[in-house]
Amino acid sequence: MRSIIVIISILFLTLGACQSPQARRPVKVNSGSFIEASVERNKKIYDNERTLFEALIEKDSTNDYITSESGFWYYYNTQDSLSIDKMPILGDAVTFTYNINDLDGNVIISEAENGIQNYLVDQSNQELISGIREGIKLLKVGESATFLFPSYKAYGYYGIEKKLGTNIPVTSTITLLSITQTEEN
Q: Environment class of residue 76 by beta-carbon count within 10 Å: exposed (0-12), middle (13-18) or buried (19+)?
């Protein structure tokens, strides 16, 4: 009798183990809602900054502003339109000076604080804001330009501790002192 119960139990276990596994249904998760909210917030910040820049440009009738493909505005303080010098390209070693001001003209980081900067175009890990890295490539040796950088091209969400808050647009005057081609060019 016991052997019959054991055989029947083994038979049921064997047949039960032969079933194919049941597929688990996916659990719906609302991922991406934070990203979508962040995108909307950043669009609003950019629209507000763009409005500020447009008002600033409209008030300033003495300078001829140029809109860059990278999303910032600039005008030349000193421009050498007759020069045959080239603009810096990937791998060039450049020296330059720059400052950072808020939109009211208050100095945040002076040219003296920064000193003369040495930079390999698009190859250096130097901690320059993306606006300055892109602005350098628009200048020839001896030229100087003032740039209006939206916060995403400047110090963005982090700002500068005890100097500049988060999401604050800035202006920067950059003067390109020299361009040296490296062996890679």
A: middle
14 located within any domain: no
Radius of gyration of the chain (CA): 30
Tell whether 93 is covered by a domain.
yes
Going by pLDDT thresholds of 50, 70 and 90, the confidence category of residue 31 is: low
The total number of structural domains in the chain stands at 1
Domain containing residue 119 = 38-180
Q: The domain spanning residue 153 has which CATH number?
A: 3.10.50.40
User: Above 90 in pLDDT, residue 53?
Assistant: yes
Provide mean pLDDT across the span 90-118. 94
